[in-house]
Design goal:
13 strands, single chain, seven-stranded antiparallel beta sheet, about 25% strand, alpha+beta, globular, T-fold, two-stranded antiparallel ribbon
Length: about 300
């Protein structure tokens, strides 16, 4: 998945755990990685008929549900646009409006369905990309694995997506929100540390994964509406939900929707909490959160 993972758990050391985790991550990669030519999603993108696994169908259903809830701000058919901007298997290049307009015609979550455990496309050029949901799903699965192996008190993190189960010395786990960096390899610091117990948190931001073309930065977060790489004052969104696959998807959707539209959505959905980091009109970094987002640890 192009990143690192971290696991902490209470109890005696489980020497077989690392191999079990690596095996599980490899299996998830075989389903969702667009960088693996043998994966299920790569086969689908090449229009090779393949019977979908129950895991794939589960992820697909979550993705489609979030797409409907956010009017397409989250969309797994964004693959052609991701590739166009150089964040998929294709190399980056200067993108023209003509290319964007052409590719946008085949993007749209309503253009795909599942019938008899096979994905059906309305257009053969449609390509799927699960990068905005795969890490969240993987974190959920690893946390489930730890519980099954007798480690109910654990915290799992993959590239900033986190699931916290049980407790740490009978207290909630602590999670920090990263301060957005000026450069993609900038030093990682936390500005807001909060308690998390039996829930998941995911962050989407435009400051770590981007391309720079002719002095301009283009974020890996692509807006399905415009076909453009996001360039906004919203630097990151952190979302808390019951599971990480959902938190991951909504964090991406909110980056596309913007802070005000996201807050309007969240007022009707108290099952989620969110923390926004943005740049003010005078160029300063500021933050805003929903009322139900946990207060910082003192």
């Amino acid at each position: 998945m192009g990143t690192i993972y971290s696991i902490k758990y209470s109890g005696s050391e489980d020497e077989g755990l690392k191999n079990a985790v690596d095996s599980l991550l490899s299996k998830i990669n075989q389903e969702l990685s667009v960088f693996d030519s043998t994966s299920a999603v790569s086969q689908i993108n090449r229009n090779e008929v393949t019977k979908l696994s129950q895991e794939f169908i589960y992820i697909y259903n979550i993705a489609q549900q979030v797409s409907k809830e956010t009017n397409g701000a989250f969309d797994i058919t964004i693959g052609p646009l991701v590739n166009l901007w150089g964040f998929g298997p294709d190399e980056e290049h200067k993108v023209t409006q003509k290319e964007i307009d052409s590719v946008k015609k085949i993007v749209g979550y309503e253009k795909i369905t599942i019938k008899d455990e096979v994905l059906v496309k309305h257009d053969s050029r449609i390509k799927l990309n699960f990068n905005a949901i795969a890490k969240g799903y993987a974190v959920d699965r690893i946390a489930d694995l730890l519980e099954k192996k007798g480690h109910p008190n654990c915290i799992v993190e993959i590239g900033g997506e986190v699931v916290a189960r049980g407790s740490r010395y009978k207290k909630p786990w602590r999670v920090g929100i990263q301060v957005p960096t000026k450069e993609k390899d900038g030093e990682i610091e936390s500005q807001y540390i909060f308690p998390l117990q039996d829930r998941a948190v995911a962050t989407s931001g435009n400051y770590r994964n981007y391309h720079e073309i002719d002095g301009k930065r283009f974020s890996h977060i692509i807006n399905p509406y415009t076909g453009l790489a996001e360039q906004s004052d919203l630097l990151s969104v952190t979302v808390i939900a019951d599971n990480c696959i959902t938190a991951d998807a909504y964090a991406t959707a909110f980056m596309v929707m913007g802070m005000e539209a996201s807050k309007q959505y969240l007022t009707k959905h108290p099952e989620y909490a969110a923390y926004f980091i943005y740049v003010t009109s005078d160029g300063l970094m500021s933050s805003s959160k929903t009322d139900n987002f946990p207060n910082p640890v003192k």
